Amino acid sequence: MPTPDDPDLVVGIDHGDDALVWRRPDGRALVSTVDFFAPLVDDPATWGRIAAANAVSDVYAMGADPLFAVNIVGWPADLDPELLGQVMAGGSATAAEGGWVVAGGHTIDAPEPFYGQAVTGELNLNDLMTNDAAAPGDALVLTKPLGTGLVATAIKRLEVADAAPAGRIGPLVAEAIAEMSRLNRDAALVARRAGARAATDVTGFGLAGHLHKMMVASGAAAVLHWADLPLLDGVTRLVPEFQPGGTGRNLGWVGDALHVEGSAREAGARRALLGDPQTSGGLLVSLPPARAAAMVVELVASGHRAAVIGGVVEAGALEAEGGAVAGSVRVLDG
């Protein structure tokens, strides 16, 4: 699409950031984003809660607070509309938790159901966080564990009983749902208090894709430590059977910019988790090391599985490792 050019468009499509930012005459700014998806869990209200948390995440990632949203719905004519009511009730419950108002929306006939929200927020431009402001020397913080794409795929392919609380992957499903339902509000507030200027949320492109995009936009490269990455408990056992189709596309897009240490088997499993498409994933924040460590301490104390996962380096620093260009990501064994 053509690149828009307007003096009040503070953040547009130039770097593929999470949401647009529009300057208001009073010096504050509006933030606008939209997201929706098909069911990924069996319970309608839970789907609605996750979809709303996923949609608002882009607002939080920019450093903004949500104001209001409208629902976006596709619904088959032969599917019980009472189920749609449960979906929208779940979305409204998450909105009430996060302090934004769901004020209407639009529904169309569709062969498969989908649900989401278009969310508008506001911010003080001094709090703006973008994906092009990571600086060499920064530490990288991830605020949620990885693996929700694998879990969602397993739910689709296995029997209902397997995903039930006492089932084959029941505890893993429960943990994934809890993380996907968790708002990124508190993580964003802590990042703002820490003075962060660079952030994105980890969603459909996976950690590898979103980090690659951040490093390209920032003209830098990243080094991660595999042992420090938070993962859903037991999710690695799903890698052989339940990789989503998006994993291969994400890894193909990142291509040779991603270098993963370990044996062939280890590196393959690690790449699958790095490319795993996340739903309502955590924030990826770049900020000075001391502030990053303090941010993690505060988030862990409030129940987040946050961690410092690596750092930002000059693009040329990875030249000896085969990654001399901006956007390179190297994942070390330890």
From TrEMBL:
Instruction: Domain (PurM-like C-terminal): give its ranges.
Output: 136-319
Name its GO BP terms in alphabetical order. selenocysteine biosynthetic process
Q: Name one GO cellular component term.
A: cytoplasm
Instruction: Name the domain of life this protein comes from.
Output: Bacteria
Asked if the Swiss-Prot or TrEMBL record annotates the protein with the keyword NAD, the reply is: no
Q: Which InterPro entries match?
A: PurM-like_C_dom, PurM-like_C_sf, PurM-like_N, PurM-like_N_sf, SPS/SelD
Keywords tagged on the record: ATP-binding, Kinase, Nucleotide-binding, Selenium, Transferase
Q: What class of enzyme is it?
A: transferase
Q: What is its EC number?
A: 2.7.9.3
Q: Name one GO molecular function term.
A: ATP binding
By its UniProt entry, which Pfam families does this protein fall under?
AIRS, AIRS_C
Which parts of the sequence belong to the PurM-like N-terminal domain? Answer: 16-122
What PANTHER family does the entry give? INACTIVE SELENIDE, WATER DIKINASE-LIKE PROTEIN-RELATED (PTHR10256:SF0), SELENIDE, WATER DIKINASE (PTHR10256)
* Protein name per UniProt: Selenophosphate synthase
The organism named in the record is Candidatus Neomicrothrix parvicella RN1
Its taxonomic path starts at: Bacteria, Bacillati, Actinomycetota, Acidimicrobiia, Acidimicrobiales
Q: Which gene encodes it?
A: selD
